[in-house]
Amino acid sequence: TELGRLPGFFELVQRLKLEARGKYGETDRHYTGVFDISNAERLGKSEVHLINVMVEGVAKLIELERRLEAGEVVNIDDIA
User: Fold this and answer.
1) Under DSSP, is residue 19 helix (H, G, I), strand (E, B) or coil?
2) In which element (H, E) is residue 22 found?
3) Residue 53 near residue 61, CB atoms below 8 Å
4) Which residue has the higher pLDDT, 80 or 39?
5) Burial of 16 by CB count in 10 Å (0-12 exposed, 13-18 middle, 19+ buried)?
6) Global pTM exceeds 0.70
7) Tens digit of pLDDT for each residue in 3-52?
8) What residues have CB less than 8 Å from 17, skipping those under 6 apart?
9) Which of 11, 20, 53, 73 has its CB surrounded by the most CB atoms within 10 Å?
10) Is 7 helix (H, G, I), strand (E, B) or coil?
11) pLDDT of residue 17
């Protein structure tokens, strides 16, 4: 994943109201290319809201990854 290598990746994920954990857990910030993505919000929100946040956020991450793979320059600071 190219997106996970960019400075500001974890901040982007937070702006999308998600959390990204590295392959080896919550505090793992070493790049492996594998991330566990979950909702940052858990309590006090409906299941429908949480699923929509996850679907929309992951769709945005996939879109950005595809753009990077196509050679496009992406400024993730401007997103969300």
Assistant:
1) strand
2) strand 18-22
3) no
4) 39
5) buried
6) yes
7) 888 889 989 999 999 998 876 655 555 667 778 889 998 888 899 999 99
8) 39, 40, 41, 53, 57
9) 20
10) coil
11) 95
Residue 4 confidence (pLDDT): 85
d(CA 60, CA 19): 14
In the block, tokens 């946040």 appear at 53
Q: Cα angle vertex 76, ends 3, 80, to 5°?
A: 115
Contacts of 65 (CB under 8 A, 6+ apart): 1, 2, 3
Please state, in angstroms and rounded to a whole number, the distance separating the CA atoms of residues 51 and 77. Answer: 24
What's the maximum distance between 2 C-alpha atoms anywhere in the chain?
A: 40
Q: How far apart are CA 76 and CA 80, in angstroms?
A: 9
